[in-house]
Design goal:
The complex is a heterotrimer. Chain B is an alpha+beta fold. Chain B has three domains: 2-45; 57-156, Pdz3 Domain, CATH 2.30.42; 162-383, MetI-like fold, CATH 1.10.3720. Helices cover 61% and strands 10% of the residues of chain B. In chain B, helix 7 (236-261) packs across helix 9, helix 8 (264-272) packs antiparallel against helix 9 and helix 9 (277-306) packs antiparallel against helix 12 (349-383). The radius of gyration of chain B is 30 Å and the shape is elongated. The termini of chain B are far apart. Helix content of chain C is 76%, strand content 1%. Chain C is globular. Chain C starts with a helix and ends with a helix. The chains are: A alpha/beta, B alpha+beta, C mainly alpha. Chains B and C meet through helix 1, helix 4, helix 5, helix 6 and helix 7 of B and helix 1, helix 2, helix 4, helix 5 and helix 6 of C.
Chain lengths: 307, 384, 306
C-alpha cells in the first residue's frame, strides 16, 4: 500500500511537471505568433543583401541585444541615441531600464547588463580591474524653486545649510519670511549622491531628517511646482516652466557654464562596461555616442557635450 | 418629564440619522470627486492616436525608389516623385497626404523589409540633408531633387498606449493560465474531497495568509526569486508568476463559494445513478459552478489590471510589446505601472490621468460583466 | 442514461485509477498555496535576516529601535517607520470604520431600493480603483489642499496618508458590514420595534450589536489593507529619512514605502535591509491574520450558541 502511494505520488509529480512545461511551451509559441503577426517589420525575412546606396550604414553588420541599466538622469539623451542607433542598425536591440546609478554599476560588475550608466563618478570600491568608464556627456544639476519664489541666487554653502537643516527660513538667504520645504531624492539616486557631494552636505551634517524624500526627478518637479516654499534639485533636462532654476554662487545654470566648469553643480554622465566582455555592438554603440551625431543628441536633450 | 425624555430621544435619533446620511453622502461624494478629478485631468488627452499608437517615437531609415513625376499638382509642398504632400505640424515636417500609387508605400527599411510610411510620419532627413528646420515647401523641394533611391529618416510619433494594452493582456492571459487551473482544482479539493482535519486547516490558513500579504511583499518575493534567482530578468513571465500566486486566494474562495451553492442533492443523485466522484465533478459540479468560476476569473482580471507594486519590480516599466517570455526583451509595463512611472519620472499627471480613464473604463466593464454573469446564473437557477 | 450508469459501474475498477490521479492533482493544487506561503516566508526571511548574522552583523536592536534611515552611511533604523505605519493605519480605521459602518447601515436599513441600486455599484467601483489612481488623486487634490492649511506649509504628511487610506478602506468596511447587517434576522428588529424602540434605536441597540462579528472582521481586514498599502501612500507621505512624527502635519515614511522607494535601486546590504523591512511588515500581517482567524472562529461560535 505504501509503495503504491509512493509510486502514485511520483507519477503525479511527473504528470504535473509535464503538464506545466507543456503549458509553458504552448503559450510561448502563441505569444511568438501574435508577435510576428502584429509587427511585420520584426519578421526576419532572409532576403537579398542590401543593395541601396547606404553611405551612412555601418561597416560591419551588427546584431544582438544590448542591455543598459543604471542612472535615470541620463534617460533623455540616452533614449534619443538608442533610437537613432537602432534605426541605423536594425538588427541590434537595445533595452534601457532606469534603475539608478548604483544599481547600474553593480549590474555591470555582476555581469547583469552590457552597459551600466551612472550620473556620478565611481566610488573607489567600484573601480575594479577590467571595468572601463567612458564619459559621454556632462550634466548640470539645477537648483529648482517654485516660480513664485523671489529668490534668484544662492551659494553652495547656503545650499548645504538648507539641506542639512541649519537654515530653515527663506528670509535667512534673502527671500520671504517663510519656512523652507526641502525636497530630496531617494537613497541610491545618482543625482542625490552627486548633489550631496558637490555641496559637501556630509560636512554640514548630512541631509535634514525631516526633508521630503520623493522617488524620481518627476516627483521632485511636482513637489516643487506645487509648493511655494519648496527647494529641490533636478537634472538640467527636467527644468521646465513649472519650476524655476536659480543661480548658484552667482552663476546661471546653463550648459555653457556647466561645461566650462564655472557652474559648481556639474557632473559627468558615464557608461561603464567590462572591457573583455564588450561585443562589437556594444563597442559600436559607445563609439556612436561619442561621435558628432551622438553628441548632437546629448545637446538636444539638455546635456552638455564632452568636447 | 415623559415628554422631555421623548424629545431627547427624538433629538438623539435625529442626530444619529443625520450622521448616517452624512456618511453615505460622504462616501458617494468621495467617489464622485475622484472620478471627476481623473476625468477632468485625463479626458482631454484621450483621442484616437492615444489609443492606437506605440508609446515611444520610433526612428527608422527607409529607402524609397523615386519615380518619374507621377502627377503634377499646383502645390509647392507636394513631392511629385514620391507622391506625398508635406505639412508643418508642431515645427515638424510631416506627411499630410499620400497618393494611392505613391512609392512610399513600398518603402524598405535598412533590413530590406517593407516599412510602409503613413500619414503623420515625421521626416527629418532626406539623403544627407537635414530638413528639420525647413518649411514644408523647402523640404518638398529637397525631396524632389535627384532621381533613383532616396534615403529618408522617418520618425513615427508615439504617445499611445498600445504596448501597455498588449502587455496587460499578455500578463492577464499568462497569470490566468497558471493560476486558474491550480485555483479551481484547489477549490474542488477543499469543497469535494477534503475532510476536516489538520491538512484542511493548514490549507485554509495558508490561503487566508496569501490573501493578507500586501502586494509589495509579493513584489519583493517575485523580484528575489523569479527575477534574480531564476534569472528571468524583468519579464512578463516573472510578473505573471508573481501575480498568479497573488490571485490564488481570490480564485479559490470565489470558486469554492460557487461549488457550495450546488445543492448536495445533485451530488447524491449523481452518485445514485452510479457516477463516480470524478464524473460527478466533471458533469454536474463544474458546469453548475461555471458562472462562479467566470466571476472568479473576472475578479482576477480586475486585480491584475489594477496591480502595480507586485509588477514594477518583476515585469519592469519598459513600454514595449514583449518579444519573449523571459529575458531582456520580455520586460513589459502594464497600464497601471506605466501610469505610476509617468508620475514618478516625468511629473506628467495629465497623461497619467488619461491612462487612469482607460483603467476606470476597463474596471467598470469588468464590474458589469461579473454582475451580468451573476444575474444570468440567478435567473437560470430560478427556472430550475 | 441508466444503461450508461450501469456500464460505468461495471468498469468501475478501471475507473478507479483516474479517480485517484485526479484526487492527487486536486490535493497538489491545494498544497500550492501552502508551498507558496512557505516559500515566501523562507525567501523573504532568509534574505531579510541575513544582515543581522555573521561577521559585520548589524545590530538588530539598532535596526528595530533606530530613528534614522540613511543607507549611504550604513544607518538603518525602522522604528519611526513602524510608528508611522501604525499611526496612519490607526487614523484610517478611526475615520473609516464609523463612516463605513454608517454607510453600510444606510444601504442595508434606510435607503430605498433605487438608491441602493446606484450606491452599491459605486462602492464596488471604489473597491476596484487601482491604488496608483488613489495616489494620483492624493497628489493632485489632497496634497495641494493640505499645502494651504498646514502650519508647516507642506502637503505631504500623515494627514494626507490618513485621508487616502480612509477612502481606500471604506469599500472593504462597507461591503462586509452591510452583509453582516443584512444577515441579522428580521425577528430581532421586529422584537425591538415591538418593545417600542424607534427605528434608529433598533439599528444602534439591536442590529449593530448583533452584526458585530462581521463588523470586527471588516475592521481587521481594513487594518490589513491600510498597513499594506504602498503605491498610493508613497506619493503623498513625504518619506522623511528620520524622526518620529509629532503631529498629523508631520511627514511619515511607512514601512511599505520604504521598501518600494529603494527596491529598484538597492544592492548589497541595503537591499537586504529592505527585505528586513519586509519581514517587519510581514510580522504585522501575520498578527492581523491570526487575529482574523481567532475572531471569525470565536465570534462565529458565539453567534451560533445564541
Amino acid at each position: 500500500m505504501m509503495k503504491l502511494r509512493k509510486v502514485l505520488v511520483a507519477v503525479l509529480t511527473i504528470a504535473m511537471i509535464a503538464a506545466l512545461s507543456g503549458c509553458g511551451k504552448q503559450d510561448n509559441t502563441t505569444t511568438d505568433n501574435e508577435e510576428t503577426t502584429s509587427s511585420p517589420e520584426a519578421t526576419a525575412t532572409p532576403g537579398t543583401e542590401e543593395t541601396a546606396d547606404t553611405t551612412e550604414s555601418p561597416a560591419q553588420d551588427l546584431s544582438g541585444t544590448i542591455t543598459i541599466t543604471g542612472s535615470t538622469s541620463v534617460e533623455k539623451p540616452l533614449t534619443a541615441m538608442i533610437d537613432e542607433f537602432m534605426a541605423l542598425n536594425p538588427d541590434v536591440t537595445i533595452n534601457y531600464t532606469g534603475t539608478g546609478s548604483s544599481a547600474g554599476i553593480a549590474d555591470t560588475l555582476a555581469g547583469a547588463n552590457d552597459i551600466g550608466t551612472s550620473s556620478r563618478t565611481l566610488k573607489s570600491e567600484e573601480e575594479v580591474d577590467g571595468l572601463k568608464e567612458v564619459v559621454f556627456a556632462y550634466d548640470g544639476i539645477a537648483v529648482a524653486v517654485n516660480p513664485a519664489n523671489p529668490i534668484t541666487d544662492i551659494s553652495t554653502e547656503d545650499l548645504a545649510k538648507i539641506f542639512s537643516g541649519q537654515i530653515t527660513n527663506w528670509s535667512e538667504v534673502g527671500g520671504n519670511d517663510a519656512s523652507i520645504v526641502v525636497v530630496s531624492r531617494e537613497g541610491a539616486s545618482g543625482t542625490r549622491d552627486a548633489f550631496e557631494e558637490l555641496i559637501k552636505l556630509e560636512d554640514a551634517g548630512g541631509l535634514l531628517e525631516d526633508a521630503t524624500v520623493v522617488e524620481g526627478n518627476g516627483n521632485v518637479q511636482t513637489s516643487v511646482a506645487g509648493n511655494e516654499n519648496a527647494i529641490g534639485y533636478v537634472s538640467f533636462s527636467f527644468i521646465d516652466e513649472t519650476v524655476k532654476s536659480i543661480n548658484v554662487d552667482g552663476v546661471e545654470g546653463t550648459p555653457e557654464n556647466a561645461k566650462s566648469g564655472v557652474y559648481p553643480l556639474s557632473r559627468p554622465f558615464l557608461f561603464v562596461y567590462m572591457e573583455d566582455k564588450a561585443t562589437p555592438a556594444v563597442q559600436a554603440f559607445i563609439d556612436f555616442s561619442l561621435s558628432e551625431e551622438g553628441q548632437g543628441f546629448v545637446e538636444e536633450n539638455g546635456g552638455i557635450r564632452i568636447d | 418629564m415623559e415628554k422631555r425624555k421623548r424629545n431627547d430621544r427624538k433629538l438623539k435619533d435625529g442626530i444619529l440619522q443625520g450622521l448616517i446620511y452624512l456618511s453615505a453622502i460622504l462616501t458617494v461624494t468621495v467617489l464622485a470627486v475622484i472620478i471627476g478629478f481623473i476625468l477632468y485631468k485625463g479626458l482631454p488627452g484621450i483621442n484616437f492616436d492615444f489609443l492606437t499608437r506605440q508609446w515611444d517615437d520610433r526612428t527608422t531609415f527607409v529607402n524609397v525608389e523615386r519615380k518619374a513625376a507621377l502627377t503634377e499638382k499646383n502645390d509647392a509642398a507636394y513631392v511629385a516623385s514620391l507622391g506625398i504632400t508635406l505639412a508643418l505640424d508642431n515645427e515638424n515636417i510631416v506627411i499630410s497626404h499620400i497618393d494611392k500609387d505613391s512609392p512610399v508605400k513600398a518603402a524598405l527599411n535598412m533590413k530590406n523589409q517593407a516599412y510602409v510610411l503613413k500619414k503623420k510620419d515625421i521626416i527629418t532627413k532626406a539623403g544627407d540633408v537635414k530638413i528639420e528646420k525647413m518649411t514644408a515647401e523647402e523640404a518638398a523641394a529637397v525631396l524632389n531633387e535627384g532621381m533613383g533611391v532616396v534615403r529618408i529618416k522617418i520618425i513615427r510619433p508615439g504617445g499611445g498606449i498600445v504596448p501597455m494594452l498588449v502587455s496587460t493582456i499578455y500578463i492577464i492571459l499568462l497569470s490566468l493560465i497558471i493560476a486558474a487551473p491550480v485555483g479551481i482544482s484547489s477549490a474542488i479539493f477543499l469543497n469535494e474531497y477534503a475532510k476536516r482535519g489538520r491538512i484542511l486547516r493548514l490549507i485554509r490558513f495558508a490561503i487566508q495568509n496569501l490573501a493578507g500579504i500586501p502586494s509589495i511583499i509579493y513584489g519583493l518575493f517575485g523580484m528575489l526569486v523569479f527575477v534574480q534567482i531564476f534569472k528571468m530578468q524583468y519579464s512578463v513571465l516573472a510578473g505573471s508568476l508573481t501575480l498568479s500566486i497573488m490571485l490564488l486566494p481570490t480564485i479559490i474562495s470565489t470558486t469554492e463559494e460557487a461549488l457550495r451553492e450546488i445543492p448536495p442533492a445533485y451530488r447524491e443523485a449523481s452518485f445514485g445513478l452510479g457516477s463516480t466522484k470524478l464524473q460527478t465533478i466533471r458533469r454536474i459540479i463544474l458546469p453548475g459552478a461555471l458562472p462562479g468560476i467566470l466571476v472568479a476569473i473576472i475578479l482576477s482580471i480586475g486585480r491584475i489590471v489594477g496591480e502595480s507594486a507586485a509588477l514594477i519590480w518583476t515585469a519592469g516599466t519598459v513600454a514595449q510589446i514583449p518579444g519573449a517570455l523571459v529575458g531582456s526583451e520580455a520586460g513589459a509595463a502594464t497600464l497601471t505601472t506605466k501610469m505610476y512611472w509617468l508620475i514618478k519620472e516625468s511629473a506628467d499627471l495629465s497623461t497619467a490621468s488619461s491612462i487612469a480613464v482607460v483603467l476606470l473604463v476597463l474596471i467598470i466593464v469588468l464590474n458589469i460583466a461579473s454582475k451580468l454573469i451573476t444575474r444570468v446564473f440567478l435567473t437560470k437557477k430560478g427556472m430550475n | 442514461m441508466n444503461n450508461n450508469a450501469y456500464k460505468e459501474n461495471l468498469i468501475s475498477r478501471r475507473k478507479e485509477y483516474p479517480e485517484k490521479v485526479f484526487k492527487g492533482i486536486f490535493l497538489l493544487s491545494a498544497l500550492v498555496s501552502v508551498l507558496s506561503v512557505i516559500a515566501i516566508i523562507i525567501f523573504v526571511f532568509s534574505k531579510g535576516l541575513q544582515p543581522f548574522f555573521g561577521e559585520d552583523a548589524y545590530s538588530f536592536l539598532e535596526f528595530i529601535t533606530g530613528l534614522k534611515w540613511d543607507p549611504g552611511n550604513d544607518v538603518y533604523g525602522v522604528f519611526y517607520m513602524i510608528v508611522g505605519s501604525l499611526l496612519a493605519t490607526l487614523g484610517a480605521i478611526v475615520l473609516g470604520v464609523p463612516i463605513g459602518l454608517l454607510t453600510a447601515v444606510f444601504i442595508a436599513e434606510l435607503a430605498p431600493k433605487e438608491l441602493v441600486a446606484f450606491i452599491k455599484p459605486a462602492i464596488e467601483l471604489l473597491a476596484g480603483i487601482p491604488s496608483v489612481i488613489y495616489g494620483a488623486f492624493g497628489l493632485g487634490v489632497i496634497v495641494p489642499i493640505i499645502n494651504e492649511i498646514s502650519p508647516t506649509g507642506q502637503g505631504e504628511s500623515l494627514l494626507a496618508v490618513i485621508c487616502v487610506l480612509t477612502i481606500m478602506v471604506l469599500p472593504t468596511i462597507i461591503s462586509l458590514s452591510e452583509a453582516s447587517i443584512r444577515a441579522v434576522p428580521k425577528s430581532y428588529r421586529e422584537a425591538s420595534l415591538g418593545l417600542g424602540a424607534s427605528k434608529t434605536q433598533t439599528i444602534f441597540k439591536t442590529v449593530i450589536p448583533a452584526a458585530r462579528s462581521g463588523i470586527l472582521t471588516a475592521t481587521v481586514l481594513g487594518i490589513g489593507r491600510a498597513i499594506g498599502e504602498t503605491m498610493a501612500v508613497m506619493m503623498i507621505a513625504g518619506n522623511n529619512i528620520g524622526g518620529l512624527p509629532t503631529s498629523i502635519w508631520s511627514k511619515v515614511r511607512p514601512l511599505t514605502t520604504n521598501i518600494a522607494m529603494e527596491m529598484g535601486y538597492a544592492s548589497g546590504r541595503h537591499q537586504d535591509m529592505l527585505f528586513a523591512t519586509g519581514v517587519i511588515l510581514f510580522l504585522f500581517i501575520m498578527v492581523i491574520n491570526i487575529t482574523l482567524t481567532k475572531l471569525t472562529g470565536k465570534l462565529g461560535d458565539k453567534g451560533r450558541s445564541k
